[in-house]
Amino acid sequence: MDYRKTNAPSSTVTRDLVELCAETGNIYETVSIIGKRANQISTEVKNDLFKKLQEFASYNDSLEETFENREQIEISRYYEKLPKPTLIAAQEYIEGKIYCRNPSKATVI
């Protein structure tokens, strides 16, 4: 999933609970699905940011190398401006991009 190209809002949005839980019929199950996907997105974003910031890692403890790196600041600002993982997950759920399966509700034929 490319979280950079998402059309999720960058701030909090009020959602219609009846519409949101129409697929599952249970608001708690819907929130659980969105929460699990938000955790996956959060992990992905953290790993991506960590990889990009590793390029700037300094293993020397000299005071000369503790200056501000402009590129590092720009990368950090970019990630701060991204929508929160919960908003991205909620938007994915509304758009039907999340696949979820509940084994307890599976029908046996």
Can you put this structure into words, describing what you see?
The structure is a single chain. This protein has four helices and no strands. With 109 residues, it is mostly helical. The protein has one domain (13-97). The model has no long low-confidence stretch (mean pLDDT 82).
SSE order and pairing:
Elements: H1 17-20, H2 27-54, H3 70-81, H4 85-95
Helix pairs in contact: 2-3, 2-4
Tell me the fraction of residues in β-strands, as a range. Answer: under 5%
The helix/strand order is HHHH
Please state the structural category: mainly alpha
Computed over alpha carbons, the radius of gyration is 19 Å
Envelope shape: elongated
Q: What value does the average pLDDT take?
A: 82
The tally of domains stands at 1
Number of strands: 0
Largest sheet: none
Helix count? 4
Q: Oligomerization state of this entry?
A: single chain
Distance between the termini: 34 Å
Low-confidence stretches: none
Q: What percentage of residues falls in helices of 4 or more residues?
A: 40-55%
Key traits:
109 residues; mainly alpha; 4 helices; 50% helix; elongated
Concise summary:
The protein has helices spanning 17-20, 27-54, 70-81, 85-95. By secondary structure, the protein is mostly helical.
